[in-house]
Predict the structure of Cofactor assembly of complex C subunit B.
Amino acid sequence: MAKPDGNVVLRRLPLVAGGLGGVLFFANRVLSVEVTNSQARSDVLGVILSALLILTGLLWQQVQPRSPESVKLIGEEGFELAPDLPERSKTELAWASLMLLTNTVTRSLVVWYDGRVLLRRGILGPEREVKPGAIVQRAIAQQKPVYLVALKLYPGRIEFDYLPENTQGVICQPLGSRGVLILGANAPRSYTKQDERWIEGIAEKIAENLSHYLESD
């Protein structure tokens, strides 16, 4: 269900007030039998004020765009870790996933590394296994994150069947050359540049921990 925009009334108020004022001034002029000089000056001033209100309202529509509409992701909330991970890696992944879920718009995330899923947390998708598609493979190959700002617009969205089916936005953040951190949001175009930098830093920390664990295994 879409979240209502709480600022819509505020943004439309100048438009409504300006339009209503203009109509009332026009009606007053038409119904007046005789127009005095003072009334004429008042009408001119009123029309100018109404025009300014309408202009302000139009500017507000552009300067204050609507916030992205969020939805309730379909699925059950859960927290799954690969059981054979050492405690240090479990602690690292638990901490990192909690930070991402509580400090960004992420509502579902998956850590895929060396061909298997190490973590699923948040709202879980219907599929447990991850089969990296073209988008995930590109992120790993190019060592650059891929941000799908509105998932429903991309034909390749079918590869993300391990995320909730109504996921709105996705970031595929490489974990070195061996894995990827996949994050799903409940609103399109909702990750900020600050969020992206935060996610990149968290991913580097996860990759360092996992690389050390696998090398020492």
Summary: The beta strands are 77-81, 106-113, 116-123, 146-148, 169-174, 179-185. The first strand starts at residue 77 and ends at 81. DSSP finds five helices and six strands in the chain. The chain has a mean pLDDT of 83.
